[in-house]
Design a protein that fits this description.
This protein is mainly α. The chain contains 6 helices and 2 strands. Helix 2 packs across helix 3. The mean pLDDT is 90.
């Protein structure tokens, strides 16, 4: 099993797909990394040699991934919250940040729906 940046890559997947298990590496970056390292993208992770894994590790070192990237993202969110930018205020309130509507959806950010008591209907 290949281990890069303390992440176990899935054995049964192709290298370019397996690399996406690392935070900060998507499909296109994974293909670029494989090309730069000289590793065929259609090879399975279990078939990689130790030399191939070393090449991939060396190439991934050139990119910000995993813990460093997570820290960078959290710091930028905190900075927005400190300067009270619009996005920072949305983060504080736990609302969607990127302009989505909230009147109907946004349950992921807003949480479970709150029950509103019914008004009594006035009888005639």
């Amino acid at each position: 099993m290949a281990r890069i940046k303390n992440i176990e890559l899935p054995n049964e997947k192709h290298v370019c797909i397996g690399l996406t298990a690392i935070y900060g590496i998507g499909r296109s970056l994974a293909v670029t990394i494989c090309e730069n390292a000289g590793v065929p993208t259609d090879r399975k992770v279990k078939d990689l040699t130790e030399d191939d894994i070393q090449k991939l590790r060396k190439e991934i070192e050139n990119h910000v991934v995993e813990g460093d990237l997570r820290r960078e993202v959290q710091m930028s969110i905190k900075e927005k919250m400190e300067i009270n930018s619009y996005q920072g205020v949305r983060h504080k309130k736990g609302l969607p940040v990127r302009g989505q509507r909230t009147s109907r959806n946004a349950r992921t950010r807003k949480g479970k729906g709150k029950v509103v008591a019914n008004k009594k209907k006035v009888g005639k």
